[in-house]
Amino acid sequence: MSALHSEIPLEKDEQGRDIVLSARDVTVAFGSKVVLDKLNLNIYRGEILGFVGASGAGKSVLLRTVLRLLPRRSGKIEILGEDYDKLDEEDRNRLDMRLGVLFQQGALFSSLTVKENIQVPMREYLDLPKEMMDELALMKIRMVGLAADAADKYPSELSGGMIKRAALARALALDPDLVFLDEPTSGLDPIGASEFDELIAKLRDTLGLTVYMVTHDLDSLFSVCDRIAVLGQKRVLVEGTVEDMLACDDPWVQSYFRGKRARSIVPREDIRGHNDDKGAGAHSREK
Ligand SMILES: Nc1ncnc2c1ncn2[C@@H]1O[C@H](COP(=O)(O)OP(=O)(O)OP(=O)(O)O)[C@@H](O)[C@H]1O
């Protein structure tokens, strides 16, 4: 029987952590241009994983490959213990329902209200009476910290921060286990970005979400991410805590995590001593 229909436990790593997503030897190429080459990555249940890498390194390509929007040349990806390639259509839909995605820029439908946007996945996957869908949409709206009157507004009537929250509410519409966030704080002012980070952490704590967050935002990485994975040279160069990043001697990782911007967030002594993996949480967000 498929894990989708039962409580079959997820595969664990050697430290006993439940593996929610595993990518094994994943290669993605466009013609002769190889973007990802035998990439390996695990995401564990209940964590917020920050995914970083230089511009053009392949972060979006990996995200789109995981979401099956791009084909891979080889390798295996398992999500919640399931390999899409081995599922029939019904089970693929069931698995899709357990995933939420927040694309860059929010990607809300401009001709739909916030409530209608949130109901798009409900209409696609569920057959619910209108009253129940309205109730559920309002619940999601409150969950992401929007006022109830946002329900009937169109995206053009919302601030950037409100759009992100509305898009997050849509990503949470079907109560997913795993949420993919593509640069969720880009375009937000520092306070809005901080608040969004806090919201993600709160939802992880209250809903038990697992979060895969592509980001360039050092504050997010230092304040809410449990682990960080760095994409470089077509694979995951290093993964671990902030402390592991500070200790890594790869030049790009060093300049990213120990450069001028990072120094304004992480206390200087932490960078020197690499001895505090969450030291930045209490520090103010840089613009
Ligand atoms: N459909 C495509 N066809 C050909 N090449 C592509 C395609 N999509 C992405 N690429 C190439 O793959 C590489 C990785 O792109 P990707 O968008 O994943 O980078 P990224 O790490 O997300 O960058 P950024 O941080 O700037 O968003 C780039 O060289 C890009 O030009």
TrEMBL record:
Domain ABC transporter intervals: 21-258
Molecular-function GO terms, alphabetical: ATP binding; ATP hydrolysis activity
Taxonomy, superkingdom: Bacteria
InterPro entries in UniProt: AAA+_ATPase, ABC_transporter-like_ATP-bd, ABC_transporter-like_CS, P-loop_NTPase
Chain residue ranges for the region called Disordered: 268-287
SMART domains in the record: AAA
Keywords tagged on the record: ATP-binding, Nucleotide-binding, Transport
Family affiliation: Belongs to the ABC transporter superfamily.
Protein name, per record: ATP-binding cassette domain-containing protein
Organismal lineage: Bacteria, Pseudomonadati, Pseudomonadota, Alphaproteobacteria, Hyphomicrobiales
